[in-house]
Amino acid sequence: MMHAYRSHTCADLNKSNVGDAVRLSGWVHRVRDHGGILFIDLRDHFGVTQVLCDPDSPVFAQVENVRSEWCIRIDGEVKARDDDLINPKIPTGEVEVFIRDMEVLGEAKELPLIVFGDQEYPEETRLRYRYLDLRREAMQENMKLRSDVVASIRRRMWDLDFREYQTPIITASSPEGARDFLVPSRLHPGKFYALPQAPQLFKQLIMVSGFDKYFQIAPCFRDEDPRADRSPTDFYQLDLEMSFVEQQDVFDTIQPVVQGIFEEFGKGRKVDTEWEQISFRDAAMWYGTDKPDLRNPIRMQDVSEHFRGSGFAIFAKILEQSGTEIRAIPAPSGGSRKFCDRMNAFAQKEGLPGMGYIFWRDQGEGMEAAGPLAKNIGPERTEAIRQQLGLGVGDAAFFLGGKPKAFEAVAGRARVEIGDQLGLTDQDRFAFAWIVDFPMYEADEETGKVDFSHNPFSMPQGGIEALNGDPLQVLGYQYDLSCNGYELISGAIRNHKLDTMIKAFELAGYDEAEVHKRFGGLVNAFQYGAPPHGGCAAGIDRIVMLLADEANIREVIMFPMNQRAEDLMMNAPSEPENEQLMELHLRVIPQE
User: Fold this and answer.
1) Contact indicator for 483, 469 with CB cutoff of 8 Å
2) In 52, 57, 139, 189, which residue has its Cα 20 to 30 A from 431's Cα atom?
3) Considering the entire predicted model, what is its pTM?
4) Are 282 and 435 in contact (CB under 8 A)?
5) 3-class SS at 322?
6) How many CB atoms are closer than 10 A to CB 259?
7) What is the overall mean pLDDT for the chain?
8) 456, 203 in Cβ contact below 8 A?
9) Do the Cβ atoms of 249 and 242 come closer than 8 Å?
């Protein structure tokens, strides 16, 4: 007895099956009519088989009606293809199946997007008809990759003696840094649960409970504005926590896992094995960002000394104000007026008046420094700059000045642009770096009020003593892993000492009563012998995005929201029924 739908998948058949009677089910990928013979590429999740039908087939008339994306079952006989018709690109390319019988399992209406080929469709169309979009080969591959990456992460974590534990999805609101999604309680009118922004407090409590090594492939919920590399509602992370560890222990544990995943799924791209540790301050200075792309070799430098009291009035004036500096972005091989003009236009597009530049060219008598800056500051200063930056003939340097906070981000983007334009960035590589020594606190520009700059639960470097001086000088045992310009991991050694924690929150303006009220669970637990502990979380969507070589995170999420945090396919968010609102004791205030 043959199976109701298939004896083989659409990837199984090869030369050894010639002469067999087989049954296949799948989707009609495309139909071709060659002089009255109908050829159909029949596709399922596993592959494609060519099936054909001529007027001798008893079901020829039925097969003539079939259109793209109909779901059909066929019975037929496997035949060898002629030598000159073999398709070496697919595993089933040596055979075809002559159709003897067919059943339509599901007809398809006119398609809003074509599955065959790689036509571009607006994102709204793709997300509204995601089930069609997902049939496309590229999307099938991305989703398989995602699943395989998660499975591999789990195996690697188990091999390191971690166990996976689940933490609650409905919990209390906590200030993790983003907005919470709130869930009204029916049994406690007027009170709300929250969806967790991360399992942060629970994973710390798991350590206090004595489990030593925890991990979870955890969903996290944040009510954020979407970006290309961030989902606006929920995302998944590899969340882990360990007891009795210092910062380096966490690095030594997670590096082989992440490096292994990139080696396993990176399709032969080079994976860096030496992960340098760069302080937050140096990363800002050299790269203008705390998630640098190290495939690009350019490092910016402080060149303020060469402009102090110089003939270049704009920079000399800037340097008279406190807290200012001039930075240079070296551009090896960028030494032409044409390239300098192009970068100047880039700076103007970024909202700056422009970027100063110097470039060095060969004038026959030797090297000449060109550009208005060189003339203004004179040959000695220009030469000193060239030597500091290690540049020569055919190279250029660009300059930005002011308070670093104001120009750093643009300088960072200019560095990336220069690396790309001049072909200095190695595209075939995954370059990792730990960014360490994050400041614990930052001051509001307007009000001067001090608040946490990152995770409030980090241990300050130097412990409670460090909290007696200037809060803006305090560094945390806090770290991020950056890869090719994306932040992949964020983590910290946690503050497990109650007195230190109370003091740390005090500096950010939370009194003891507030800390007890907001983090009662953790605070109470820390009174009963908390071990030193730390960990991190790695963004799974982002890892898969890099491995799949996609620039948009929605390409690696099965059913993502659109840019406005809407699900067009399921019509979410939607308006609740009146009965639901009454049960929850809620009323919606009409928008003006």
Assistant:
1) no
2) 139
3) 0.93
4) no
5) coil
6) 17
7) 94
8) no
9) yes
